[in-house]
Amino acid sequence: MDAPWLSADEEQAWRAFRRLLVALPARIGRDLAHDSGLSPADYEVLSTLSEKPDRRWALKDLAAKMEWSRSRLSHHAARMQARGLIDKEPDPQDARGCILHLTDVGYRVLAEAAPHHVVSVRSRFLDQVSSDELAMLRKLSTRIADLPD
Amino acid sequence: MDAPWLSADEEQAWRAFRRLLVALPARIGRDLAHDSGLSPADYEVLSTLSEKPDRRWALKDLAAKMEWSRSRLSHHAARMQARGLIDKEPDPQDARGCILHLTDVGYRVLAEAAPHHVVSVRSRFLDQVSSDELAMLRKLSTRIADLPD
DNA sequence: GTACTTTCGTTGACATGTCACTGAGATTTC
DNA sequence: GAAATCTCAGTGACATGTCAACGAAAGTAC
């Protein structure tokens, strides 16, 4: 086939980057589970909920904010509710809706997890890149992630 | 808590990079499934197998090469075998062992998938970064991925 | 206000990956 | 060469995520 192909440089860069795409989240996720018993998904839900002053967020809005499907968040919220990390309230604005609320337990778990997680992100990622590299990576990440799906 | 925390720059860079970590594999994986009916894991197995002249690889060596657990590869190979993409042979060197072999069907599926996949990787990733950025990304990725687990 | 359409959260079936364990077969040690 | 140890592939239970449905409730058009 006279397919479009990758140059040696592109091939090696893509391979190296793919390794990073797999290894970095795996390592940070493992740290998180070890330190706090939370999955990366748990942490994302808890930390996003905690951003709102009343620790409440409509399911659909939280799903949109995290770029999750509503189905995924519905499943995950059910599991987190069973563990007491969040609870659900009816939405007074919309009888179909559902408000997720970070419980005190959830907040304490998050508060305990956060500093360990920051150490993990630092040691496994931030400490390894220069500020120039970090700035470039940020621009590049935003540019690519902002492309249409 | 007087926890170690992230600066605004670090925080934004980490957020942007996390978006990329999620979005890029998802998009390329969706393209792959749409174009070829293969998952990213399928593609990685097929393409790695195809690198050997005889299209054969011992399960443990293939798992090590791809940095997968043997359990994961065992499960995945069983599914791929059921679809006729690969088959399994006893290892003449080691009666515990298992040789995975890319079938003709698997090879054809890979050959059909590859050019589409290259287009996808190009349009969603390579075309979006300059050669300087790509070189930096490669160095940075290798440096981080090579850290101990 | 009544039908059509859209949105919301949930559900169930399914695919994938992890983990702990197993039995068969190598390898090492003495 | 027998016994202890390690390695290999496979397995089952489980957690997570996707997808296509669904019923209920809003929103829209007429």
Automatic annotation (TrEMBL), chains A, B:
Q: Check the record and name the SMART domains matching this protein.
A: HTH_MARR (SM00347)
- Keywords in UniProt for this one? DNA-binding
An example Gene Ontology molecular-function term: DNA-binding transcription factor activity
For the biological process aspect of GO, one term held by this record is: response to stress
Q: Which residues form the HTH marR-type domain?
A: 10-146
**Pfam family of the protein (one):** MarR_2
Under PANTHER family, the record lists: MARR FAMILY REGULATORY PROTEIN (PTHR33164:SF99), TRANSCRIPTIONAL REGULATOR, MARR FAMILY (PTHR33164)
Task: Output this protein's name.
Answer: DNA-binding transcriptional regulator, MarR family
